[in-house]
Amino acid sequence: MEIEIGESTHxxxxxxxxxxxxxxxxxxxDCRFSLADPNLGQQQYQxxxxxxxxYFDLNRDLSxxxxxxxxxxxxxxxxxxxxxxxxxxxxxxxxxxxxxxxxYDDSYFAYAARFWWLLRHLGHARVAVLDxxxxxxxxxxxxxxxxxxxxKPGHFVPQLQHTDVVDIAAVRSRQGQPGVVLVDSRExxxxxxxxxxxxxxxxxxxxxxxxxxxxxxxxxLD
Length: 222
Known about the structure:
The protein is an alpha/beta fold. Helices cover about 25% and strands about 10% of the residues. The protein folds into two domains: about 10-160, Rhodanese-like domain (Oxidized Rhodanese, domain 1, 3-Layer(aba) Sandwich); about 170-215, Oxidized Rhodanese, domain 1, CATH 3.40.250.
């Protein structure tokens, strides 16, 4: 049976989710993470998470190991991620009962949005983010639990959407072409090269425009 989540298929409210915590066709992904403290998200999950949620770590689950190329968080191996999704009870859209997956974090949706995109990249469009994240969930009076979630294994078959990704050569070949926009989503001072706390070279790719990822939401979620 198709699950109805309202007008938007990309965002669900806390009130909707609390009514579907026991729905076997709904899975929850806790994506909390801190670049400054990579262990913080796992610790937060163990201390308290939305009932039924499984933890997905940015470094271990949502990225591949760093290599010579690919940046600090390369895309994960799709089949390894598919195994993790299946272990969390998630069934892909190519099964008889595809799972609706709800992701949350407490950082402007930064990590939940990555999870959301990755599932769509793997061909699973039935994924949404939790409006307001875990902070709004708690502010609404909904409970957290420290019980580690155990789900009946699902079956996830990745169907990669290859047009979602381009490589360095594709970016170079299209720089400056009409109708092509390259977006740098980091903070403005990093884009301008005024501050660079992480990468070895400050500044941005020539021709890129700046749209900071923190500006996507209306308020900080932690």
